[in-house]
Design a protein that fits this description.
The complex is a heterodimer.
Chain A: E1 7-9, H1 14-24, E2 28-31, H2 37-42, E3 50-53, E4 63-66, E5 69-73, H3 78-83, H4 85-90, H5 92-98, H6 104-109, H7 112-117, H8 125-131, E6 135-140, E7 143-148, H9 149-152, E8 153-155, E9 158-159, E10 166-173, E11 178-185, E12 192-203, E13 206-215, E14 222-223, H10 225-231, H11 238-251, H12 262-283
Parallel strand pairs in A: 1-3, 2-3
Antiparallel strand pairs in A: 4-5, 5-10, 6-7, 6-10, 8-9, 11-12, 12-13, 13-14
Helix pairs in contact in A: 10-11, 11-12
Chain B: H1 2-14, H2 26-29, E1 46-52, E2 58-64, H3 66-70, E3 74-78, H4 80-83, E4 90-92, E5 98-100, E6 106-107, E7 113-119, H5 122-131, E8 133-138, H6 145-148, E9 164-165, E10 168-169, E11 175-182, H7 184-193, E12 196-207, E13 216-222, E14 227-232, H8 237-248, E15 255-258, H9 274-286, E16 290-293, H10 296-302, E17 305-317, E18 323-335, E19 363-371, E20 377-379, H11 387-405, H12 409-416, E21 425-426, E22 432-433, H13 438-448, H14 451-466, E23 472-482, E24 494-495, E25 498-499, E26 502-508, E27 514-518, H15 527-539, E28 546-550, H16 567-594, E29 601-604, E30 607-610, E31 613-619, H17 620-629, E32 640-645, E33 654-664, E34 670-680, H18 687-706, E35 738-741, H19 759-775, H20 790-799
Parallel strand pairs in B: 1-16, 14-15, 17-20, 18-19, 27-28, 34-35
Antiparallel strand pairs in B: 1-7, 2-6, 2-8, 3-7, 4-5, 9-10, 11-19, 12-17, 13-14, 13-16, 17-18, 21-22, 23-33, 24-25, 26-27, 26-32, 29-30, 30-31, 33-34
Helix pairs in contact in B: 11-19, 15-16, 16-17, 18-19
The chains are: A alpha+beta, B alpha+beta.
Chain lengths: ~280, ~800
């Protein structure tokens, strides 16, 4: 658990960080909270000759809720997500999910930007961002571009972000309707065996719209349009939920690990999704 | 009345037996002021790190150290070739086998030590490890002990033709021993003729003690005066000194072994590891101090595991539930080397305590030890030697028998308990249980949890479940365990030939305070607190005025160390006996001072009083001063004593645990609604420390039963080498525990104490596991192996058709 030698950089601005990134190319990587990257370096599974710590860049921090739009700086910690009342009012699912990430010590350091940018299929925020239809802002040498969370993830640890880009900001429209985040894990600090983010809008006693995504059941987060559609127009009863679960099971592709075999994970995915739908509907 | 109050105040001031005195260690530990091995930093100290095998079984074709040696700051890279001239490339194990210190031609488990890099700092050492080029030729891997006993694959080529091992005949090249106890023929006959026989394979999976602090050592060879000082994570520092002397040829008086503060041991720090040997050799070679500290992954993958017992049981009974016989055959997976930490004559430890709390007239146990491509070990993880396996086995077999008999498992236990008037009780497998009152404890436990109400609620729950009203099941996990601790009588207990006595040496200072040194070593048990209490009650000085010191072989008397809950039964007894020697001399001094005959005095809390004249007395403080400032005819100056205590028998703590568990049949998640733990550890020295021990032991039991394991894939890769996958409960997963007690003193221990630190693990594991099993009993479950993590519980439900 001793990393190879590396150079530590701590730029004070996005521009300065991009400059270091440009200078060292493949030899450099940016670090947010460090909870994924540092263990990888200590295990010598990641070789990072130039480590760029983003923690001193103030423009990457902060939460704003204005005109129904939520904007969160990439270096905002999970702890700050939990304690921000404006965010909790605009999108209660954010606090609900963040409270299920790791433990308080990790949440003081872990950031939303690191969580979404790393592309780890076990992370909670990517699925939630897809459920919320969030937009990620990426700063690169050629300026800024935006990409939808639903288009961002390509494979495990592979995303649409280029090596010379920094994910700087996350934004989404404050969701309407009932929201729920449900997660099964083996213990505090563990990744999900299965987790579901569900947002349901209700009109005249029926489901008007539904957005559903799940976590750690494939090599990317799984936003299932079909699962949401299965609920729309229904009274969110048992049959509609079964249809949504069936649709989701068609979209996930879990693999066996120490949490259990594929058959178990699929079953749990269905149970967790059903519970998330029930709770979201009860809040709609 | 005033006198009585005064006397009670004097008793209270001692903070002796029965006082919930706060732990004196904690002021230091809670402020980060502990002094652990990794806190030892010496001038010029070098750092060692291992090159380890990525393969579970491979031939080592070549090792090229050139690139590593070329790295600036690298001082040496040791391989087996370098150790061979010193005959240190292999070392003896505690179990009579031998173990490679560094890979000698082949590797036998993933993570095995292949080369030892020594460098000027820790970072360079880690870089150099990457530069050592080892060429391996992979060999077929054996991870299943049953397959290993049939396979043509030879694991231990060094002994493949040896038909005799340390514990008798070997019938196959991967076989280590067959150890038997009891009457096989008589047991088989009883089973053949029995009205009812229940048969089951009970597997206690491989797990690991995983102490908070991993293992490590600092060796410092002073070539000028020829003295070797060794700091290390040693649960038995004196034995380490003797072993180090025998291995290195350095005379024992020239070796000083120091166990500083130890961050938990749980059996993991009993054995001798290649890291210790390599740090010593490297210090001898370089003439500089060498530190080796393993990391968490190395600790989990390469240092001593626990359990891994496949226990095939048969238990017979009459139709009305009276047990008539017990038969057990164990296939014990010992890994690549037999490095079990057991007393020499007991290759399966005290597993033959497996008749448990029950009066079983005839029994037989046979244990086959087997080599596989897994890490060596087999230590007593928070239990006495293999007692947790034994308790789990019998408590599962009782449950299975209850199913076979269609009886309530609490009632089945009650009608088979050894009765209070049968103690001392001679078990069918050769133990003499010292004392116990199981029925009283059992009735108290059942009443405390309102057992009948729980069963009624459970029956209703089963109906509700079947009617589709709930998806949660209720399990009631019962355990009545009997521990066997305090190893042990020198006549049959030794480690590497050293009898398992223990010791205490006391010096009373002139002003009436004291220091006591013991042969044991605390790893968090609170010895500095509780041993002072034993002594306070014996010699009448306040525990606050007594320093307890352990772990330095230059100052402490020889002892066999701390494991197997032996400290209180053995060293605690030595402490009381040494205290009594102090008191005997004090009586002579008091008699002189009071100008009466010795026999005219009687002991009263903290003083000697003239019989019939209570106003004439001398306190222990007065006596201590007199011992140093007066010439007393016929009495040597000073007030010191030493006692080496050879226990006449083991002690047999017991307890009744009940776990009430809710289980989600759909996700396999569980919630522990109630956990009641009644412990009887004989005389209770410090109730608060006991409660802390019970809480800690139960939490480790929870971990083991509900998720913790060392698992391997078919290639022998360790799948649980980090705390991501190796389950350590946090406060969130840990339930509330209700503790309770009865008090049945040991008749042969000077203060009647039996030891408690490991009882909660011994009793806790079957209580948690039985709760899981019990939840599914109504649906036909007989046996499902631990750990009961989510997917395995889910699988029980799935296999029973509970998912529709």
């Amino acid at each position: 658990m001793i990393p190879s030698e590396f150079e530590y950089h701590r730029p004070g601005s996005i521009a300065a960080a991009l400059a270091v990134l440009e200078e060292h190319g493949d030899d450099a990587r940016v670090m947010a909270g460090g909870h994924s990257l540092i263990p990888m370096m200590k295990l010598r599974m990641a070789d990072v000759p130039h480590l760029i710590d983003l923690q001193s860049i103030d423009e990457l921090k902060g939460i704003s809720v204005e005109g129904g739009k939520v904007t969160i700086g990439a270096m905002t910690t999970q702890h700050e997500l939990i304690t921000n009342d404006a965010l909790a009012a605009a999108a209660p699912i954010m606090r609900e999910a963040a409270l299920l990430i790791a433990d308080p010590q990790v949440r003081y350091m872990g950031t939303i930007g690191g969580n979404v940018a790393n592309g780890d299929p076990g992370n909670d925020m990517p699925g939630l961002m897809q459920c919320l239809d969030a937009t990620f802002s990426l700063h690169g040498p050629d300026g800024t571009r935006e990409v939808q969370a639903r288009d961002f993830y390509e494979a495990a640890y592979m995303t649409d972000r280029e090596d010379d880009e920094i994910l700087t900001r996350i934004s989404f429209a404050a969701p309407k309707g009932g929201q729920a985040y449900e997660k099964q894990k083996r213990k505090i600090g563990d990744y999900a065996t299965a987790a579901a983010a569900v947002i349901i809008e209700k009109a005249s006693g029926k489901v008007a719209s539904a957005s559903i995504a799940m976590t750690n059941l494939s090599d990317t987060p799984v936003f299932s349009e079909a699962a949401g559609s299965a609920l729309v127009g229904s009274d969110c009863g048992s049959d509609a939920m079964s249809n949504a679960v069936s649709a989701m099971l068609g979209d996930i592709d879990p693999t066996e690990d120490n949490r259990g075999p594929v058959e178990f994970k699929k079953h749990v995915a269905g149970v967790i999704l059903r519970r998330a739908i029930e709770r979201a509907w009860s809040r709609a | 009345m005033k006198d009585l109050e005064d006397r009670q105040e004097r008793i209270d001031n001692l903070k002796g037996l029965g006082c919930s005195r706060k732990r004196v260690e904690d002021a230091r530990f809670t402020q980060g002021k502990g002094n652990y091995v990794d806190d030892v930093n010496l001038p010029g100290m070098l750092h060692g790190d291992f090159v380890r095998s990525p393969y579970a079984h491979a031939r080592v074709k070549s090792i090229n150290i050139d690139a590593a040696m070329a790295l600036d700051g690298v001082v040496a890279v040791l391989t087996a070739k370098d150790l061979e001239p010193l005959s240190l490339h292999w070392m003896p194990t505690l179990a009579g086998d031998k173990q490679m210190v560094l890979a000698d031609g082949k590797v036998l488990f993933q993570g095995q030590e292949v080369a030892f890099v020594v460098a000027k700092d820790r970072y360079v050492a880690a870089d150099a490890v990457e530069l050592v080029e080892v060429e391996y030729e992979e060999l077929p891997v054996l991870v299943d002990p049953f397959e290993a006993l049939q396979s043509d694959i030879v694991l231990r080529e060094d002994i493949k033709d040896e038909k005799e091992g340390a514990h008798g005949a070997r019938r196959h090249h991967n076989h280590i021993f067959l150890w038997e106890e009891g009457d096989k023929d008589a047991t088989e006959q009883v089973l053949d003729e029995a009205e009812v026989v229940a048969e089951e394979m009970v597997y206690y999976h491989r797990t690991h003690p995983c102490p908070l602090e991993p293992c490590g050592s600092v060796a410092s060879m002073d070539k000028i005066n020829g003295k070797l000082t060794l700091w290390g994570t040693f649960q038995a520092p004196h034995v380490v000194r003797t072993v180090a002397s025998l291995l290195s040829g350095i005379e024992e008086h020239n070796i000083r072994v120091i166990s500083p503060d130890i961050g938990g041991g749980f059996g993991n720090k009993v054995g001798v590891y290649p890291g210790y040997v390599c740090s010593i050799v490297a210090s001898i070679v370089t003439g500089q101090p060498v530190k080796w500290i393993e990391d968490r992954m190395e600790n989990l993958m390469a240092t001593a595991f626990a359990r891994d017992y496949w226990m095939k049981g048969k238990i017979s009974a009459t139709k009305d539930g009276k047990i008539t016989g017990l038969h057990c055959h164990v296939t014990a997976d010992h890994g690549a080397f037999d490095a079990c930490a057991d007393p020499t004559k007991f290759p399966a430890g005290f597993f033959h305590i497996c008749t448990g709390s029950y009066d079983i007239p005839v029994a037989y146990v046979g244990v086959d030890g087997v080599y596989t491509n897994k890490a060596p070990g087999g230590v007593a993880y928070r239990c006495s030697f293999r007692v947790t396996e034994a308790a789990y086995f019998i408590e599962r077999m009782i449950e299975v028998l209850a199913i076979e008999l269609n009886m309530d498992a609490a009632e089945l236990r009650r009608i088979n308990f050894i009765k209070a008037d049968q103690f001392p009780y001679q078990s069918a497998l050769g133990w003499e249980y010292d004392s116990g009152d199981y029925h009283t404890a059992w009735d108290k436990a059942l009443a405390a949890v309102k057992y009948d109400d729980l069963r009624a609620e459970q029956a209703q729950r089963v109906e509700d479940f079947k009617a589709g009203k709930t998806r949660k099941l209720l399990g009631i996990g019962l355990t009545h365990f009997t521990e066997i601790v305090g190893a042990g009588p020198v006549k049959n207990c030794d480690i590497l030939g050293m009898g398992m006595f223990d010791s205490c040496e006391i010096r009373i200072h002139p002003t009436g305070s004291a220091i006591a040194r013991l042969g044991t070593i605390s790893q968090g048990q609170g010895h500095a607190t509780t041993f002072a209490q034993i002594l306070a009650s014996e010699i009448g000085l306040s525990a606050d005025s007594i320093t307890i010191e352990e772990g330095d072989t230059d100052t402490a008397p020889y002892g066999l160390g701390t494991y197997g809950s032996r400290s209180t039964p053995v060293a605690g007894a030595a402490t009381a006996m040494a205290g009594r020697k102090i008191r005997a001399k004090a009586q002579m001094i008091a008699a002189y001072l009071l100008e009466v005959h010795d026999n005219d005095l009687e002991w009263d809390v903290d003083r000697f009083v003239v019989k019939g004249a209570p106003e004439r007395f001398k306190t222990m403080k007065d006596i201590a001063y007199a011992a140093y400032n007066q010439a007393i005819p016929g009495v040597e100056p000073g007030l010191e004593a030493v006692s080496y205590y050879d226990p006449p028998n083991m002690t047999y703590p017991f307890g009744a645990y009940i776990c009430v568990m809710e289980i989600d049949a759909d996700t396999g998640e569980h919630e522990i609604r109630q956990f009641y733990a009644l412990d009887d550890c004989g005389t209770r020295i410090n109730p608060m420390v006991i409660e802390g021990q019970v809480h800690g032991g139960l939490t480790e039991a929870l971990a083991i039963a509900m998720g913790q394991e060392i698992a391997y894939d078919d290639m022998g890769n360790c799948k649980t080498g980090t705390l991501m996958d190796f389950f350590i409960p946090t406060a969130v997963e840990t339930p509330h525990y209700t503790t309770d007690h009865t008090e049945t003193p040991s008749p042969h221990h000077p203060i009647g104490a039996k030891g408690v630190g490991e009882s909660p693990n011994v009793g806790g594991v079957p209580a948690f596991s039985n709760a899981v099993h019990d939840a599914f009993r109504a649906f036909g479950l007989r046996q499902s192996h631990m750990p009961h993590d989510h997917w395995r519980i889910w699988k029980i439900a799935n296999d029973l058709g509970l998912h529709g």
